[in-house]
Write a structure and sequence with these properties.
- Helix content is 0%, strand content 53%.
- By secondary structure, it is mainly beta.
- Strands 2, 4, 5, 6, 9, 10 and 11 form a seven-stranded mixed beta sheet that branches.
- The termini are far apart.
Length: 111
């Protein structure tokens, strides 16, 4: 069982940046693939970015070139750096690994 706690969300103007963090408890963090998802009101949850245990990454088309996922295995933490934010990025952002999910952190981008 892994517990995930997200932080770093907030209100930002369009064009701004935020960095989300996800602190994981439990064992074998360095061996886990980690991902960020988001869910906007009235929409399905979607994958934003994923990072494997070896550090390979992939992104949703909407995130490419603007978002960067990274991990610090020494801190059991995965990050999502979000730049050039747009109003359509407004959503609750979740950290996930396997079947474990965090509680989410709200990101609101004003126009």
């Amino acid at each position: 069982q892994v517990q995930l706690v997200e932080s770093g969300g907030g209100l930002v103007q369009a064009g701004g940046s935020l960095r989300l963090s996800c602190a994981a408890s439990g064992s074998f963090f360095s061996l886990r693939d980690m991902a960020w998802y988001r869910q906007a009101p009235g929409k399905q949850r979607e994958m934003v970015a994923r990072i494997t245990s070896r550090g390979s990454t992939n992104y949703a088309d909407s995130a490419k070139g603007r978002f960067t996922i990274s991990r610090d295995n020494a801190k059991n933490t995965v990050y999502l750096q979000m730049n050039s934010l747009k109003p359509e990025d407004t959503a609750v952002y979740y950290c996930a690994t396997e079947s474990n999910w965090g509680q989410g952190t709200q990101v609101t981008v004003s126009s």
